Structure formats: C-alpha cells, structure tokens
Amino acid sequence: MTQGKLNTDLGTLIQPDDDLKWYQSNEAFKERFPMYQQTALVVIRGPDANATQAAARALKEAFTQHALVKSVFAPTIDAFIDDHRLYFLEEQQLSDWLQGTDYNFGAVYRFDEQPDAANAVIMIADMLGNQTGQPLPRSVESLIESFLAGEPKFNGFYPLHAPDQNEFVEILIVNGQQALDQALPNAAIVAALNQAIDDASLPSDINVALTGEIALAHEEIAAALSGIEIAGIISLVLLAIILGWGIGNFRIIILIFTILSIGIGTTLGFAVLTVGSFNTLSMLFVVMFFGLAVDFAVHFALRLQASQEQTPEALTQAVRDMGPALILCTATSAIAFLSFLPTAYRGMAELGLISAGGMVIALGLTLVVTPAYLQLWPISGSKTTQPKAAEPRSFDYPIWLTWMIIAAMPVALYFALKVEFNYSVLSMRDAGSPAMRALARLQTESQQTDYSISILAENAAEAQQLKSQLQRLPSVGDVRIPDDLVPTQQLEKQLKIGASAALYENLWQADPDTYVNAALHTALEYFKETLDSLNGDHHSQANAILLAASKLLESPEDLSEFNRGLALQHQRDKQALKRLLMAEPFAIADLPEDFRNRFIGAEGQQLISIQPKTALTDRKQTDQFLQEIQSVTPDIAGRSAVEWGIGEVVVEAFRSATLYALIGVMLCLWLYFRHWLTVALVLTPIASTLLFTFAMSYLLGFSINMANILVVPLIIGLGVDASIHVTHRYFHSAEHARRYIAATRRAVMISGLTTLGTFFSLIFSPHHGAASIGMLLTVAITIMLILSLFLLPSLLQFFEQRGFLTPKAV
C-alpha cells in the first residue's frame, strides 16, 4: 500500500483512438507549438498604462529567475513590439499622437537642459503665467502631478492608448514544470508564481490574477483531494449513525467496521498491484468502499441474527443461505464496475477495476471474518421480534402504491428524455474560484486563453482566407493570424513619424554632463513673483505646488531623491521616445525568433487563434462556438476542441459500458434464477430507477457530465443487489421464512441507507464533478431503495399468484 502513487495528469483520464480527426489535429498542434502546453496566464490589470506595464516587467523578471519556470512570454511588453508600437496605431490615432508629441517638444527640450525640481518650478511658473487658453503640454502636466503627489512622475510623451481608457491589461504566458508524482503536481509552480507576485510589492491599484491550465488544474485537483477527505469523514459519521439506528448491536457494528478497516487496506494493496497509481477519479473508491463493503456484512449478520442462534450449525446454514445471493451480488456489481474497462475512459476504467476488486475482497472478508468473529463474540440483544404466523413470502405492501409508481412512469419518461450530456469541463468547476473568474473575464474580453481554438494553416494566404471566413461567425469574438503581427500602411506611417523624429533630432545629441544646476530656492522666488498674476484654479494649484516645493527645500535628502527620480524618468522616456520615433517598418521575418516561433511553425504552418465572443461556461455556448468553426474547417485544436472531442468519447464509453453491464448482469441473473421473467422483474427496479433519476435530474436542473456519467452502470450494478436479496428471500421456502423476510427487508434498508449516506457525503465536496456524482447517486439510490422494497415485491406476488412464477428454495 505504501508503494502506491497518485497520477494527477488529467490528460491520461481518456485514451481516444488515434484516428479521430480532432485528436490528430490537436496532436499536430502540440507537436508544432509545444510552448502552449502546461501554461499559466498571469493577468495584470491597472488604471495606468505605464504602471501596469511596469508591473508586468517586474513580474516577468521575477518569474524567469525561478527554477520551476521554463519560459515567460509577454507579447505586449516585448522590447521589439514596444519599440514599434507607433506602427500598430490606427492612422488617425497616430496623427493625433504625433501632433501631441510636436506640441510637447518645447517642454521636453527645455526640461532636458536641467531635469530637476528647480527647472520644473520655473517651467510651471512660465506655463501657468502664459494663460493662452491652450492645454498644458503633457510633460508640464506630469511635473505638476509630481509636486502635488510628492513623488516624481515625469512623462516625456503622450500615452499610446485611447484617452478615455480607464483599465489596462497585460498578460504573461508562463510555462511551468509539473511534478506529476506529487498529490498536487502544480502546487509548487502556483506557489512560486504567487510568492513572486507577493514579493513584487506592486501598487495597490494593480490587480494580478492567475489562471490558465496550470492554475485551473491545481484548483481542480486540490478540490478533489479535499473533497475525498471531507466525504470520507462525513460518510464514516453517517455510517456509524445509520448502523447504530438500524442495527443497534454494538458487536455487529464493531464487526462491520473491522471488515471495513481490513478491506480498505487490502483494496489499496490490490490497486497498487493491478493499476499502480490512483487518478483523480479512482480516488473516489475510498469513499465508495465505505458504503458498498458494508452491504455484505449487514445482510449476513442480520440473517444470522434473525436465526436467533450462533451455533456452528447456524453459521453454516447462514453461509449456505446467504452465500449464493452474496456471490451473485458481487458478480453483478463487479461486472458493472468493470464495464468501463474495454472503453477509452481510462480514469473510469481504473476506478472500476479497483472497486470490483474491493467488492470481491469485501465478500471474502464477510464470509471468512464474520463466522469467526461471531463464534468468538456471539450476537446478543437482537432487535428482531418473533412474528406471528403469516404467509411465508408475503412482504405485505399495498398494491395501490405499485400502481402509483407505474402510472408515474410515462411522465418520468417525458422529462427523462430532456436530459442532456454536458461535456464541458469548465461547467464542473467552481465558477467563483479565482482562476475561473479570471478565465471567464478574459473570454468575455475575447482575449486568448487555453480555451481558445487553434487552427493550423499551411501558408499565409490560407490563414488570411480562413480568418475572413471565421470573422463572420456569430459566436466568434476575435481571430488572430501571424500577419496580424505586422501592421498595415507602414510606409505611410513612417513618413509621418519621420517629421516628428527630425524635430527631436537635436535632443538625442544632448550631453547630460552639460546640465545647468540652478538652485531650487532661486526658482521658488521666481515662482512667487508669478503667483500674484494667477487667478482661479491656476492660483490654487500654484499655491499647492509652492507648498510642496518648499517642503522639499527643507529636506536636502528628499530633494536629492526627488531630483534623482525626475532625472531617471526623463532619461527613460527620452530613450523610449527615441526608439519610437526612430523605429523602421518591419516584416514577420524581422520579429525576434522566440516571438515568431509562437505563431509560425518550423515547416511554415501558420497558427490561427480564435477567441469566443462569450465565456464558454455551458454546453450550448461551446457547441455553437465549435460547430460554427467546424463549418469552416474540421481541423480544430485547443482545450475546447479536446474537451468537445473527449465528450464524444465519453458518451461512446458510457453507451458501451451500459451495454456491457446490462448483458453481464442479465447473464448472471439467468444463471442464478434460470427464469427470464424473474430476471426481468429483478431488473425492473433498476430500469425504473434510471427513468425516475433522469426525470428528477431534469426537474432539479442537474446535467449529466464527464464525472457523474458513471451513475448509469453503477445503478445497474448496485441496484440489482437489493433486487437480488428481495427476490432471493421472496422465493425462500425454509421454516421461519417470515422472520428472514423481516431481516432481509431491514438489511436492504440499512445497506441502502449506508450506500446513500456514503454518496450523499460527496455533495459536500468542493470539486463540482464529485459533488454532482454525490447528488445524482443520492437521488438514484433513494429511488432505487423505494422501488426495491415496494415495487418489486408487489410484482413478484402479482406474477406468482397468476402462475407465471414457481417459487423454489435457492
């Protein structure tokens, strides 16, 4: 057991056939663009463009220094793109920006002569004094903001964004190293990224969110593991309460928990030998075992308790009586669990194999441990009372209840047919988690995410043609191709930029060592003379500037730091402005290699990225998005395409598993009862349970998803157990049959409640997939229990009375 491992690679849960079109397309995409696998998206948002970009640069630097980070791609702050930003502006936007740059030239040139507080005060005084009605140049506005805010904020040029834009977004794409041998394989990389974010000490108005495959998978696996712990504790508590209420015999309860403790350890060992590791689905067997392994011990112990004897002969008789039924239940349950084994749903197949082994182990322990235990510690204090004489096989249930159930079936069928399968993995995740909120917002903004659709075009012409077709689709928000990396009308833009570059040419030649160093107190005297001529807002603003500058004068250290900051920011913006104005037109071939390789494959394939118009949080939206794209091209890749394709594989696995389970169970029942009508009656509660479960699912708003789809074969395997015990006892013709019928009825009730309690505990799991399994099975087992105890005995009695059934000892 200690040699077991946890396989948390979610990509191994399904093994689709290699000839599937979507699978081939996605494998080709992964091979040509491996940098898009196992990524985290770090989304930085802020109200100021410069501050947001500064935060993105700081985080990129911090991330690249960590050993678990393979690479960091920051397209919008890439040095090459940053220097050529003017070419990406629309023509009118560029003209407006250049006009502002020319208007700001005088302020930049004058501040360059002496980039400190003294010159700033003089410049502000002159600008405020010359009240021409024109707006102040951008650089003068930033100097005023510096004094009012008490920190240097020099801007050498106007921002390159719309003037009314109030939020700016930067996205870093991080490739991280997983540790698939750990319970939480992405925990280390997620912790490293979060730690780097915390250590960066970013401004309070900068918001950073973590999403992408790495973060989403980490949240899902953490929720699954947490859910197992929560469900395990709750199920044990419920198990103790149900057994205490239903059995009330301390020795039997100790016996059951003894079998549980031995069985869980033995099953873990069996899992290590057969499977070798546990996936996020097969971990559920721990919780399932609590409810399923109890059934055998409950039926056997209550049957022995009903005999009111614990002699070796009574034990032998109980084994002979209950053994065949228990073996049949084990076989049918194992078949249901193993039904996924021949399918491509590997995660469910491993869960089934481990659970089937657990059922066999539970049976063996029941038949071996129970007699030995009861010989050493005989049962006392039975709840069973001696019944009065009655018909040996009558369960005494009102026939009107049976007719009500039968009458409700057509209505249930109507609603059951409306249930849909939702293959979306996102719909099973917590929409309120940080990573999911960040992803949904990016999708709403048509930003590229892990759930974007990717298409490979053979060349640029094909990529452009596909883009034109895709942009016309209603559900498509944005389409990006490699040609979008190269701006249009570059030569025309270069001519416009060149005129402003010529204006600034002398500024690039300025020597910092020739700066004049006028004293701040002299500048303040000049400022005071100007102050008297100002009025209105300018006068009050000037007073605030005078007060702030005077405080700087009182502290040489603060003044020195303030001047240093102004000089550094001036030099930074001066060089940035130079790079913007001196940049030349470029082609795709001029892009940095690591940038170009993310959009064009080694053999020239062009990557087309398609973003949805709305967040893909349900099947309807995802179906529309994918089907519209497939109307243009079938060669789709990306997580949305993979999950859609996997959904088809899961549906096919579900159909096959249900068929295998049904055939296997029917064969076992026929070999046992040797009567097809009896087999049909035993299966009637199961079929009815499925019908009413799907109807309730629709009415309660549940959908069948990638996780809870196991409910159908599970109902077949588990539901038939109760029917087998009821039918077995109904046909039993031994002396004191009435007493055994009461014991069987109570055993069916208790085992049903323990199974119900086990799966009910999954509802409290933070993993929405596990919670949906618990919710659906809670509904199903409740219905199954009612039908097994009420509908089945009535049907057996109905057909027996009309001579269609011949009771015999079994």
Q: What coarse outline follows from CA principal-axis ratios?
A: elongated
**N- to C-terminal separation?**
39 Å
Number of strands: 11
Please give the count of helices.
27
Unreliable stretches (pLDDT < 50, length at least 5) are: 381-395
**In percent, how much strand structure appears in the residues?**
5-15%
How large, in whole angstroms, is the Cα Rg? Answer: 37 Å
Sheet with the most strands? 4 strands, antiparallel
Strand order of the largest sheet: 3-4-2-5
Short description:
Helix content is 62%, strand content 6%.
Characterization of this structure:
- Among the domains are: 90-159 and 488-585, no CATH class; 452-486 and 599-637, Alpha-Beta Plaits.
- The longest helix has 35 residues, at 639-673.
- It is an alpha+beta fold and 810 residues long.
- The strands form 4 sheets. It has a 4-stranded antiparallel beta sheet. Strands 8-10-9 form a 3-stranded antiparallel beta sheet. The protein has a two-stranded parallel sheet with strand order 1-6.
- The protein contains 27 helices and 11 strands.
- The protein has helices at 21-32, 49-64, 79-83, 91-113, 117-129, 138-149, 187-199, 213-246, 250-274, 285-307, 312-338, 346-376, 399-416, 434-444, 460-470, 490-503, 505-508, 520-531, 536-554, 556-582, 593-596, 619-630, 639-673, 676-700, 711-730, 737-761, 768-801, and strands at residues 5-6, 39-46, 69-73, 168-176, 207-211, 277-278, 421-422, 453-457, 476-480, 606-612, 704-705.
- Helix 11 (312-338) packs antiparallel against helix 12, helix 23 runs antiparallel to helix 24 and helix 25 runs parallel beside helix 27 (768-801).
- Mean pLDDT is 82; it is low at 381-395.
